Amino acid sequence: MEETISLKEIFEVLKKRLLLIVLLMVGAAGAAAIISFFILTPTYQSSTQFIVNQDTSETNSVDINQIRSNLEIINTYNDILTSNRILDQVIEELNLTISPSALSEKISVANSESSQVVKLSATDTDPDVAADIANTTIAIFQEDLPELMNVNNVSVLSEAVVPADPTPVNPKPMLNTAIALVIGAMIGVGLAFLFEYLDNTVKTEQDVEKTLELPVLGVISHIDEKDMMSMGKPVSISHKRERGSFSGQKKKTV
Amino acid sequence: MVRRKKQSKVSNVRHLITKLNPRSPITEQYKTIRTNLQFSSVDGDLKTMLVTSSGPSEGKSSTTANLAIVFAQQGKKVLLIDADMRKPTLHYTFRMDNRRGLSSVLVGESILEESASSSDVEGLDLLSCGPIPPNPSELLGSRAMENMIGRAKEEYDIILFDTPPVLAVTDAQILANICDGAVMVVRSNQTENDAAIKAKELLEVGNAKLLGVVLNDREQNKAHYYYYGN
């Protein structure tokens, strides 16, 4: 049996489960907001920039090669910056209580394409520590470089400073909430269709005719209290009685 | 879970809307069923008819009772029999005594004329289930049952049976074999497709003449639904 789903049916399904979808969206967004604002500790980022000066007098290569070698040098510097040799000294210098590998996760090195300016960023829960890490790392790197590579072509362009009102880079509550909202909506829509698919009950006259191939003699709509009006007088149907009892008597069997 | 709770609340409440509110659109819907039933039996006389469903609490008893009332309102002499001798409900619906009824007639304790009582609807007589017997299916398939129906046919224009669900017990199948027609009640949003198909197959095995389906508890578009209301 081939089944086709029209656009209208899709909207019907979504409309029917709108409450579920909205609840999931609000719930997910709320949870994300609460986690971002209250549970996750904010981390701050501080960056320093340094410039890699190729000594052009040594080589007479063409520009394209120079750029490539710059890139290679920057990649090399990246590795050196996050090597234990540098990081151990940073930890010693700053009296940090973390391992070099943990520290290397806090440091990221990036340069914009075909530029000799390299940006070193350090993140920490304390903005001052972040700035200290960035500055100390670059200082130690600058000191060690002549010893390591016999060149001294790094100069610091800008030092990491702590702004008066540091804003955390992570978590981003608005972004997290927005993502959670979208994920909540997606899960809601998915669940709505799943429920619709799992619900194999008869619903309409068309369902009856299709599955049972019997004529529909009539359709009784849902009867609620409002319908049970006797000449304008409301008749209470909310009075509940157990099936086995009749005027207070228990069911009797022979 | 939520759906289940909703069901039990509905099943405990007996709606007799056709009696309480004869001008309601829902009463009109029962009258439509009445008309369709009369049309569906053009060649034969539809004198005995049973109402059943695949599972419990799909609206058999209330549909039967309301149908009986609209038939009676048409001026017919109607006998409504509670053939659900496992979970009888007719005496709750019409708030009557259940000391004598179908079971006592079938075991020969009393006769139909004594056991059937008239209701507050003109032309509608009721035969409640009576004391619950240990062997309902055997009683329904007995010769006493045939005799009783034969006698009832002389007295009444139409005899309606309220039966247990088809998938649970065989009673409805046995009765469907005896009756001129069978109506299946299907509750919207509750009856599963497979259950309905299985019930239909079981009734066909019992040589039932399935007249059609009543779709119960269908949600309606409000605007459309109240258009002809009062």
Automatic annotation (TrEMBL), chain A:
Main localization of the protein described in the UniProt heading: membrane
Membrane topology: Multi-pass membrane protein
Domain Polysaccharide chain length determinant N-terminal: 3-94
InterPro entries assigned: Bact_polysacc_biosynth/exp, GNVR, LPS_length_determ_N
Segments traversing the membrane: 18-40, 174-195
Protein's UniProt keywords contain Transmembrane helix: yes
Domain Tyrosine-protein kinase G-rich positions: 147-194
Record Pfam families: GNVR (PF13807), Wzz (PF02706)
Keyword Transmembrane helix: yes
Keyword vocabulary terms for this entry: Cell membrane, Membrane, Transmembrane, Transmembrane helix
Highest taxon, organism lineage: Bacteria
Compartments, as annotated in UniProt: Cell membrane
Family under the similarity heading: Belongs to the CpsC/CapA family.
Protein name: Wzz/FepE/Etk N-terminal domain-containing protein
Source organism per UniProt: Gracilibacillus caseinilyticus
UniProtKB/TrEMBL annotation, chain B:
Enzyme class: transferase
Domain AAA: start-end pairs: 59-184
SUPFAM superfamilies (UniProt xref): P-loop containing nucleoside triphosphate hydrolases
EC numbers, comma separated: 2.7.10.2
GO terms assigned for molecular function: kinase activity
InterPro entries: AAA_dom, Bact_polysacc_biosynth/exp, P-loop_NTPase, Wzc-like_C
One Pfam family cited in the UniProt record for this chain: AAA_31
Family according to the record: Belongs to the CpsD/CapB family.
Protein name: non-specific protein-tyrosine kinase
